[in-house]
Design a protein that fits this description.
about 375 residues; alpha/beta; TIM Barrel; binds iron/sulfur cluster
């Protein structure tokens, strides 16, 4: 394990952006058993029941390291609806913070009004339409999530974003379009799984991406699919990427995302909390250093035509492929995902994004440029 140079790490700012997302894994328990859950790696899922640090300790940590930052809090898990007690304590203790919730959606009906009233956004995990989602998550889950959405919509000002893990090559553009009409936003992330991106599956996903991009440019209002929005925004307004993530990975893992395990240990990426050398802080011991997931000379991004809008998409994928030199991960996950990202950018370019933006109504331009949703999800797929 790499020694942590606390003395030197305390001299440089731990976060390089003025806004910082505190992503609190309030529990590692979950009521579902999704087949590919990333927390299953390293046996993280279910390893800690609920937060063992106190809210006082968290407040001291924030005051010590983030006093001059705007913090916003994501309630994450496991399933955060299983630890409502902590959510209630947090909304009370951090009255100025914005809140986001990342949930599987099946227990949303149990979230009390005191929490719902403080949520700016809710990310709800799905895998595609009903058939694909129920296949990965269990029969009836998709319908349950949509029913819950209807039950709570009137009780909160939060936006709702479908967070789709895109595993299956069978997911169609129509299914994703249906999500875009049901939720306020759709964010998709290509599955980080060695079986997800066979050549046939990549070809099918490319066709769907082309279809979705065509729908984006044909829509009279903003077509709310975040990776397409983000690609267009980054191509047209690159300064926005500098503002929100210092021009680095837009999941903020390199800059301003702080994932707190229930035991208080801090990591830059919620998918890699099984790697002790990546630890960047501790709420209980009250220390924090710069993110341990940073661009590395062996990563190919500076030579990549997608760099201006992608900015090193997923640091976990890049780290495993080019720092850890995991050839299998590189070939089966990182490279196919990068190919899909380049394809997405090429499809956007085919539709004259500058001409489209020039002719778009101000409400569409404003939403494309400034949507709050960019702060709550990874932006790039
Ligand atoms: S597509 Fe891949 S190689 Fe290119 S900038 Fe993005 S992460 Fe880097
Ligand atoms: S996109 Fe960012 S937060 Fe998500 S798995 Fe990759 S590095 Fe981690």
């Amino acid at each position: 394990m790499q020694a942590i140079d606390l003395e030197n790490s305390s001299r440089e700012p731990a976060t390089v952006c003025r806004r910082v997302e505190l992503q609190l894994l309030t529990t590692l328990q979950c009521n579902l058993n999704c087949s590919y859950c990333s927390l299953g790696v390293g046996k993280v899922l279910r390893s800690q029941k609920s937060a063992s640090y106190t809210i006082d300790q968290l407040e001291t940590f924030v005051r010590t390291h983030l006093a001059d930052r705007e913090i916003y809090i994501t309630l994450y898990g496991g399933e955060p609806a299983l630890n409502i007690k902590l959510a209630l304590g947090l909304v009370e203790r951090f009255p100025l913070a914005r809140f986001n919730m990342q949930t599987n959606g099946t227990l949303l009906h149990r979230v009390p009004d005191a929490v719902l009233a403080r949520l700016s956004n809710v990310m709800i995990s799905v895998d595609g339409g009903q058939r694909v989602t129920d296949g990965f998550r269990g029969k009836g889950v998709y319908r349950k999530v949509l029913d819950n959405l209807e039950k709570i919509r009137g009780r909160t000002d939060a936006s709702f974003c479908a967070r789709m893990t895109w595993w299956s090559g069978e997911t169609s553009a129509d299914e994703i379009d249906e999500l875009a009409r049901t939720f306020d936003y759709v964010y998709f992330q290509f599955a980080q799984d060695e079986g997800a991106h066979t050549p046939e599956s990549v070809a099918a996903k490319k066709a769907v991406l082309g279809d979705l991009v065509a729908r984006f440019f044909a829509a009279p209002e903003l077509y709310p699919i975040v990776p397409i929005m983000g690609t267009v925004r980054n191509k047209l307004l690159p300064a926005r990427v500098e503002q929100l993530s210092n021009g680095l990975s837009q999941c903020r893992a390199s800059t301003n995302l702080i994932n707190v395990m229930p035991d208080g240990r801090v990591f830059p990426c919620p998918d890699m909390m099984y790697e002790p050398e990546l630890q960047q802080g501790d709420v209980v011991a009250n220390w924090l250093r710069r993110s341990t997931l940073q661009p590395h000379p062996d990563m190919p991004c500076t030579q990549c035509r997608a760099q201006p809008y992608c900015r090193g998409n997923c640091m976990k994928n890049l780290y495993l492929a080019y720092v850890r030199k995991d050839a299998r991960w590189r070939e089966s996950v990182t490279e196919p995902v990068c190919e899909l990202i380049r394809h997405l950018g090429d499809e956007v370019e085919r539709h004259d994004p500058r001409g489209w933006y020039a002719g778009a109504p101000v409400r569409v331009r404003r939403r494309l440029a400034d949507a709050e949703i960019y702060e709550f999800c990874e932006v790039m797929p």
